[in-house]
Amino acid sequence: MDAEVNLDLSEIARVCERFGVASLRVTGAALTDSxxxxxxxxxxxxxxxxxxxxxxxxxxxLGDELQRIVGRPVELFDRRTLRSPDSSPPGGGTRVVYPV
Length: 100
Description:
This protein has a single domain, classed as Beta Polymerase, domain 2. A 4-stranded mixed beta sheet has the order 3-2-1-4. With 100 residues, it is an alpha+beta fold. The chain contains 3 helices and 4 strands, in the order αβαβαββ. The longest helix has 15 residues, at 56-70. The two termini are 16 Å apart. The protein has helices at 9-19, 29-32, 56-70; strands at 21-27, 42-48, 74-78, 94-98. The protein is globular and about 40 Å long.
């Protein structure tokens, strides 16, 4: 995946720290496909720290920052909004990108 998709983990860590992210995972086709087309979006699953400020502005700004880092569209899911807290969005497993 890393050869096809630019995941600057140090930049992702800086953004996660700024927004109070406890964990960030990438999921979906980026994990299962050997070649992800450059126009494909990346799906991230975020969990905020309990003390982090959470509102739509923070959530969408985090998505915009991730999109800037990876250079492609981003779909961002808040782990709290999923039916089962241990589930992930459709598309398979997940890989932790923050903290690493």
